[in-house]
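User: Show me sequence and structure for the first protein, then do the same for the second.

Assistant: Starting with the first protein.
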Amino acid sequence: MNFKKKSLFLNFSGYTIINLLNSLTPFIILPILTWNLSSNDIGVIDLFTTSTFFLTPIIGLCIIQSISKLYFTIENRKKYISVVFTCILILGVGSTLLSILGTYTFNIFDLNTDKKQLVILIVFYVFLNLIIEGFLILKRNEENLKQFAIIRLSKAGLDIILSIIFLSLYNNYNVRIFSLFSSSFLSALFIGYLLLKDKSITFLVDKKLLNKILIYSSPLILHTFFNNILNYADRYFINDYLGTAQLGKYSVIYQLCMVMSLLITSFSMAWTPYFMKNMAIDKKGFMIIFNKTFKYYSLSILIFGIIIYFIMPLIYKFYVGEDYKVENTIYLALLSGYFFQGLYRFKVNQLFFEEKTGWIASLSFISALINIILNFYLIPKWGLFGAAFATLVSYIVLYTILELLLSKILNDDL
């Protein structure tokens, strides 16, 4: 069986370059933020982005995640994609209208005018990014690197340009939020044009197909929500126990450590459609390549994490600024957490292929619960290191339980 290793290598190389350029966005903007804004302002920006992560599975019902698997198993792909984007449109517009009615007409939230506008902006921002991410997953499956690159890089470029311009004129965290929103709005507008231009994708609601999509994606709502707790709940604990200024410092080191996700995400973008397609063709034969690839992948992210750890002091000294420096134990814990996250993201594809999305949701719930408990006890005692250590322990537990579940599947198949 020829599994087209050359195709995987070319896609991995392409996604790595694209993600490298895209990942430069927060790192280019980061020193501009630290030079022009206070750590308190950066903490507020972090709370904005964190809120969007928690709302995404609620508004989008994780429908776009189904593209990663169902795209390869549903025969009428064009009909399926039409139903997916129709649902995103209905859910996004409906959520935006409800947020307007809730904040202004019914005044559900006791907020001032600026905060009401921010709530609506967050909901609409989530809607825009559902369109963008759904389109990008589709292009990955189609192995259409050209359109993937255009959308991903143009959005990143707009974000950088707008942030630089506005932050040079106004020392206010609102301009950073405005830049994030504007780049997403223009990108989603362009995607809308591309979808309308492609006459094969139409406005369509099919109850039978929609039911199949929801059966697959509904457990992922809980999975994504709990996964966001694991990744971002510590922000709220830090803000409450240590203050927004300390949250700003944590946000900076978290973004710096996220450079490790470049390798993880780049590989995942190329690997996931490659894995799903070939598992559907020859599951038993492809597992030989799967296990061999995992060994090289694990070693690569381990070496990458070690390199980042040793150059981190130089990044603080020459790029971010000493005012935001934290103890090395904090970024050691975060980088180690990313390592186990990388192992998890590679192997969890097996559960997605087996359509064990309920198991995935349970895994996320367990790790999220552990993370909340550890944050509650460790942040008041150990400060920022407590948050980082809680993240590390949670990912170790998550990966360990995943391996146990995969062992069970393997034994059942024998």
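Switching to the second protein now.
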Amino acid sequence: MAKQILLNAFNMNCVGHINHGLWTHPRDNSVDYNTLGYWTQLAQTLERGLFDGLFIADIIGVYDVYQQSIDLTAREAIQLPVNDPLLLVPAMAAVTRHLGFGVTANLSYEPPYLFARRMSTLDHLTGGRAGWNIVTGYLDSGARAMGLDAQDEHDRRYDRADDYLALLYKLWEGSWEDGAVRRDKVGRVFADPARIHRVQHQGPFYRLDGYHLCEPSPQRTPVLFQAGASDRGQRFAATHAEGIFIPAGDKDSTRRLVQQIRAQAVAQGRRADDVKIFVGIAAVVGHTQAEAQEKFDDYWHYASAEAGLAHFASSIGVDFSRYGLDDPIEYGSSNAIQSAANTARANQLTRRKLLERFRLGSRYPTLVGDAASVADELQSWVEDVGVDGFNLSRTVTPESYEDFVDLVVPELQNRGAYKTAYQEGSLRHKLFGQGDTLPARHAGAGYRHGA
């Protein structure tokens, strides 16, 4: 039997997310990103397609490295303006039953005590469908906006993240015991104080003395996602992450990365399949190959490769506007996204080569074809490379998701490679089939009362 493919829609509470410039296409409605109807309609489309989740990216800061300004960023809406991702979720949860929601939050700027409450609240309101994409930030512009001279050094940000997670686990997993909440009206006992525990934390970065403000939510700890592909990021993910997002390079190098991540998880006392690995892609789908190619060519006329370059410039901290099209680029060491910088350096990518890669405004690989050819490629990534699923970015919205749901999903279902109905239960149970809360072998489970 074919392995079941997992699917997240990859989006952001902004106009231009990954495939830049396509907001100008006459059929694109991403300029309506700041309306509830835009998001509730998307959520219903994804649930119709049995997507596992909607993964909502976020940044703190602006892309101001390219040309040392926000001129192009503002004109092309390169993740600016960008609204809060968490506030979208309750509205979408109200019009769906099963769709999961992975929200990005930067721990470098979120007080952990308040963030623990916010995520518990979200897990309650969604009935256990909340996930958190753990990020530590990579934009110096964000650090300056938060009153700092610069962000912490790359590996130190992960050291901070380890301490942050330890504190959160104590709140989510250890402060309230199972059974602490009684809801006993006759006995006038809502919660048993003997089963609610004070948390004291004295770490290298954070201190806390208090009680978790929320009763346990369905999952207690939200499903944990992480996207770091650097050596330090992988070590962090092997300990904490349940879903890991990796870049889609060539299949051989990606296969090695997948094997490396799973081996590191096993070294942490987990199972290889305790992590679900996703790669980011875009898809332009038609009823025929010719129709898909015609659609891609149409999209290309509206895309902005230069906007994609400006996005990438801030991702690795290099101002490409200072270089000629074929000049060798001095990548140096990066305090931003190290894995992206290392890939660009290893491939000696010039400005011309990068612009060619960003033809559709994005560095994500784009599948162009009919349903069968797109399904073939997705299955190849799962069966030959070993990934579990995909983060599907939008191109022209809403039609890119509608086309995928109407054409590719039935093709995958006919092959037995995609579910035909949702399983009941929380997001974690849907992904792993082992219950709502963290398994005992996860690091966070060790913080439960009496563990």
